[in-house]
Amino acid sequence: MSNKAKKEAKKAAYAAKKEQEGRKVINWIFGILIALGVLYAIYSMYIMA
After folding, report:
1. Which of 6, 13, 29, 42 has its CA 20 to 30 A from that of 48?
2. In angstroms, what CA-CA distances link 41 with 11, 30, 37, 46, 49?
3. Counting Cβ atoms within 10 Å, is residue 9 exposed (0-12), middle (13-18) or buried (19+)?
């Protein structure tokens, strides 16, 4: 395997790892936003009652 091919494989593996980590962060952000939305809805109902 040539040196260039090794570098390309390493770059591809690094990019795939970063993409997976990025997706995990996005999922956490959406989960937190949904949880906050639910808490706000409960709070709003409590205030109106």
Report:
1. 29
2. 45, 16, 6, 9, 12
3. exposed
d(CA 18, CA 15): 5
The full 3-state SS of the chain, as one line of letters, equals CCHHHHHHHHHHHHHHHHHHHHHHHHHHHHHHHHHHHHHHHHHHHHHHC
What's the pLDDT tens digit per position in 27-39?
Answer: 999 999 999 999 9
Please state, in angstroms and rounded to a whole number, the distance separating the CA atoms of residues 25 and 38. Answer: 20
Enter the pTM of the model.
0.70
